[in-house]
Amino acid sequence: MIIKVNVPDRMLGEWEVKSVGEEKYLYRHQNDASKLIAKTDEPISEDSIKFIQQAYGDVFVAGLGLGQMVKALIEKNEVETITIIEKDVELIELVGKYLESVSLKVKCIHAEALTYVDRSFYDFIWFDIWEEVKAENCKQIERLKSHYWKKAEEIFFNNEERCRHLLLLK
Fold this sequence. Notes:
alpha/beta, SAM-dependent_MTases_sf, Spermine/spermidine synthase
């Protein structure tokens, strides 16, 4: 499944949304280097597909990227609200504000997933807060599980099994 987004091309701080043909790319420019963070020209993960298929009601999304997950959730009639937390205020300005303008379902909050305190209960929670898949993410996944376990019916982590597999290979 490939999800296209219409986020406007723009650069803000270390972030850049750039079009190449019909595709969108999100780059992070740091220390004289550019890192590709997200792109729309390849299929989303199996975890993402599973989450999109199951999600309904009030949904919590940690990590914004290009907004592909949020776009798919906006299009689902079964999803009523989408609360996004993102730790980078520039990424909220680049992508989050656009998504809020597209749908009244969407609300962006500037916060860190590991410390954010929310009294709300959600039907589904999605975490995709890592720029790359690595074994070290497993520690954060466990911390997030303990922090959010009473906050939702279902909690999903993008690439959790891949992280665990990498941990086993260490």
